[in-house]
Design goal:
mainly alpha; two-stranded antiparallel sheet; about 5% strand; about 110 residues
Length: about 110
């Protein structure tokens, strides 16, 4: 505590140290419902570590390599620097808006 707070700390010490302890409640006041059933002792449900709760599920392979863009003819679309734009951010060939995204830039 800084010099400006010493007076406040000295005034608050008797009140803070002389108060009664705040009880910590581990059992909820409201009955726990699981669906339509009321759980009689919810503390036992929380502490139950016997039952296995994880399930292994086989998932099909997902290829997360992005598919390159295609033009209406089905050919791979040209990159934005090779597309005719006539100074506009819209392709003169396909009419799509060309956005250049930069993930990050390092100085130097």
């Amino acid at each position: 505590a800084g010099p400006r707070l010493d007076a406040h700390v000295d005034a608050a010490k008797p009140m803070l140290l002389g108060s009664s302890a705040t009880p910590i409640r581990t059992i909820p006041d409201v009955p726990l419902k699981a669906g339509d059933q009321v759980v009689a002792n919810p503390v036992a449900v929380v502490r139950d570590k016997v039952g296995q709760r994880t399930v292994l599920v086989r998932q099909e392979h997902v290829d997360d390599v992005p598919v390159s863009a295609r033009n209406p003819a089905g050919d791979a679309a040209a990159s934005s620097d090779k597309t005719v734009t006539n100074g506009c951010p819209v392709s003169m060939v396909t009419g799509e808006e060309l956005l250049t995204l930069t993930d990050g830039v390092l100085d130097g």
